[in-house]
Amino acid sequence: MTNLGKFPVFFVLVILAAISAAVFGALHNQLSYSVGPDYFHVIKFPQFNLAPDVSPRVGAAIVGVQASWWMGVIVGIPAFLYGLFRVPTARTYLAAGIGAIGAVVLLSAFAALLGLIAGIALAGSGWFADLIAIPAGLDRAEFLRAGMMHDASYLGGALGALVAFWPMHRAVAIDRARLTGGQP
Fold it and tell me: For the whole model, what pTM was predicted?
């Protein structure tokens, strides 16, 4: 199949990556709001110009969508372009792209969990307070829990840009083996 025949799949994958990142952001912010509501009220809600009459949980979800949909696009495009030119069939390309999105979401979730654990651990240690400026009026422990969880999930997403290549690379081997009758 030509790359032109797989081109619509590329756009579908980019859209799926954006939607997956947006949903991840909305769900992620439900947990991070639970562990650090002040982080949202003092930093995130004003940063995203959230109306004061919006429910905090809905607001956290809105912020999560707005803050993360683009990450799916940025992380996905390099691997999706690689797959567009390397994976022989559209069907395998789509499956590999969905696998890449899943791998990035799982890695981001794992990174967020590690960030939360680090935030909990560091909130109890006094030495960390001098390394980071915590805005006035914000609970130090909440800031560290929610802030480190957010930063770690972005780091997980960035690392996911590399991990996303693996399903695409594997799809090339699988398709070539299937097309030639060999082993992947």
Answer: 0.89
